[in-house]
Design brief:
Length: about 450
C-alpha cells in the first residue's frame, strides 16, 4: 500500500493532539448527567399514570387561553414580532403593579421587573450575573436540582445546608413542617466567601412553606454577611390549610439584596409557555438584563401578552373568591388530600405538604419488592422508581434527585409524586396502588 503523504501525516498528528483535549468547556465537567432526561423518557415509555415531572394534566383557565388566542389571531400584527427585550411593556407594567402591592413598595416596571424564559432563565441570569470563581452559594437541601449545576457552571461552589426531619408525634402523619433549618448550622455555612443563598419557598420537592422565624434567620445572616438572596417563589400561590406565603424581599434589609423569581407556568398552569420573571432593585436587575440581553434576548411576545392579561384580571379580582390565585390552591388542596389518602391506605407514608403540588412519601414498607443491592452505586429510590414505572406503570421521581451526591444515599427511601392531576388520573394511581397492595398481601 502507498505510504501516507507527509502532509496527511502532519495533519492527522495535530488533529489527534487537539482531540486529546476534551472538546467541551471545562465548566461542563461533572454536570453532564441529568436525571430528568432518563425519567421523562421512562415515563413516556412505560407509565400508565405519570405523577413524575411537575406539570398539570388539566387545562389552564379559559380567560388565559382566550387571551393567547386573541393575541395570535387578533388585528395586532406587532404581537407576532419582537417586543421590548426585558419584558413586553403591558406585562412588566402589570407585574410591577401586582408585586408592588404584595411587597408594599412602588415598583418601576422598566427597572424593577424583567421577563425571562421561565423561572429557569431567571435563575440562570442570577448565577451568571453575580457568581464567579471562589464564590460560595448556599443551597438548602433538598433543592430543585438545577441550582447546583447552575452554580458550578458560573464557577461558584455550592455549600449545602440540610432541612432536618424532626420525628412527628406518634399517630400523626409526617408534614413538610417537620423539616426545619437548624439556625446554628445555617449560620455556620456563611463566611466571607458567601455570595448568595438560594431560598425556595414553598419548596420543591417537600412542599415546605418557610415560616417567619426561619426567613428572618436567613435575612439576618444575609445582611450580616452582605450576601444576596435568590428567592425562587414559583409556587407562591400554592399554599394550603390557611397558611401564608411570606416574601423574603419584604423583610427589613432584604429588598436591596433579593431577586424574587416567579413563573406563569406554576401560577396559571401553563408550564409550556415558559414565561417567568425576576423582581428586584435596579442595582441587581441591571446585571440580569446584561445576561439576558446577551443570551436569549427576548421571550415570546404573544405568550407575554396573554400572561399580562391574566395578571390584569387577577389584579382586579385580588383577594376575591373568583380570583384564580384563590381558586387554584383550593382545588389543589383537595387533590393533595386525595393522594395522601391513597398512599396512606397502601402503607406509603406521605409527608403532607404545606405548599406546591408535590408530595413526598416514604416507600420503606415496599422494600421487599425491590431489594437493596449493595453492589449498585445507584440510590435505592432511583432503582425503586424505575422498577415501579416498568412493573406497575406508575411514574414518580426519586427524592435523592434533590440532594447533592454526598447526601443522596441518606435520603433514598422516598419518592416525590406530583398531584396537579385530573381526578381521573389520581383515581387511576389509586387503583394501581390498591392492586399492588392486594398482590403483596395475597399468599
Ligand atoms: N423553580 C422551581 C422550584 C421549580 O420547581 C421549577 C419547575 N419545576 C422552576 C423553578 C422552573 O420554572 P419554569 O418552568 O418557569 O422555568
Amino acid at each position: 500500500a502507498a505510504s501516507p503523504s507527509p502532509f496527511r501525516l502532519v495533519f492527522s498528528l495535530s488533529w489527534q493532539a487537539k482531540m486529546a483535549k476534551p472538546v467541551q468547556a471545562q465548566r461542563l465537567e461533572g454536570i453532564d448527567k441529568n436525571i430528568w432526561v432518563e425519567f421523562v423518557q421512562l415515563a413516556a415509555t412505560y407509565s400508565k399514570v405519570n405523577l413524575g415531572q411537575g406539570f398539570p394534566d388539566f387545562p389552564p383557565p379559559d380567560f388565559l387561553k382566550d387571551a393567547f388566542v386573541r393575541a395570535v389571531s387578533g388585528q395586532s400584527q406587532e404581537l407576532h414580532q419582537y417586543t421590548r427585550a426585558f419584558g413586553h411593556p403591558p406585562l412588566v407594567k402589570v407585574l410591577a403593579q401586582f408585586f408592588g402591592k404584595l411587597l408594599g413598595r412602588d415598583l418601576d416596571p422598566m427597572t424593577n421587573v424583567m421577563v425571562t424564559v421561565g423561572a429557569y432563565q431567571a435563575l440562570f441570569c442570577c448565577f451568571q450575573a453575580f457568581v464567579e470563581e471562589g464564590d460560595e452559594v448556599i443551597i438548602i437541601e433538598p433543592f430543585f436540582d438545577c441550582y447546583e449545576p447552575m452554580v458550578r457552571m458560573a464557577g461558584g461552589t455550592p455549600v449545602f445546608v440540610p432541612l432536618r426531619l424532626k420525628a412527628p408525634e406518634a399517630g400523626r402523619l409526617m408534614s413538610s413542617a417537620d423539616w426545619g433549618l437548624d439556625p446554628a448550622e445555617l449560620a455556620s455555612k456563611f463566611s466571607e466567601r458567601t455570595k448568595a443563598i438560594v431560598l425556595n419557598s414553598p419548596n420543591n420537592p417537600l412542599g415546605k412553606v418557610f415560616g417567619r422565624r426561619e426567613l428572618e434567620a436567613v435575612a439576618r445572616l444575609c445582611v450580616r454577611h452582605g450576601a444576596l438572596c435568590f428567592s425562587d417563589e414559583v409556587y407562591e400561590w400554592l399554599v394550603y390549610d390557611g397558611r401564608q406565603h411570606l416574601r423574603v424581599a419584604s423583610l427589613p434589609g432584604m429588598w436591596e439584596r433579593t431577586v424574587t423569581i416567579g413563573s406563569s407556568g406554576k401560577t396559571f398552569n401553563v408550564t409550556g409557555w415558559k414565561v417567568g420573571w425576576a423582581v428586584g432593585p435596579d442595582q441587581l436587575l441591571r446585571h440580569l438584563r446584561t445576561v439576558h440581553q446577551n443570551s436569549v434576548y427576548h421571550c415570546a411576545t404573544a405568550a407575554q401578552e396573554a400572561v399580562a392579561q391574566g395578571f390584569q384580571r387577577e389584579l382586579e379580582l385580588y383577594g376575591k373568591p373568583e380570583s384564580y390565585f384563590m381558586q387554584l390552591p383550593r382545588e389543589l388542596q383537595q387533590k393533595r388530600d386525595c393522594l395522601v389518602q391513597s398512599l396512606t391506605a397502601v402503607g406509603m407514608k406521605p409527608i403532607v405538604p404545606e405548599g406546591t403540588y408535590f408530595l413526598v412519601a416514604d416507600i420503606s414498607e415496599f422494600k421487599s419488592d425491590v431489594p437493596e443491592d449493595p453492589s449498585s452505586d445507584e440510590p435505592y429510590d432511583s432503582r425503586f422508581a424505575k422498577w415501579m414505572v416498568k412493573n406497575k406503570g406508575l411514574a414518580a421521581i426519586p427524592l435523592s434527585t434533590f440532594f447533592c451526591d454526598a447526601h443522596k444515599s441518606s435520603h433514598s427511601h422516598f419518592l416525590r409524586f406530583c398531584f396537579a392531576k385530573e381526578e381521573g388520573t389520581l383515581k387511576a394511581a389509586n387503583d394501581i396502588l390498591q392492586a399492588w397492595k392486594r398482590e403483596k398481601s395475597s399468599p
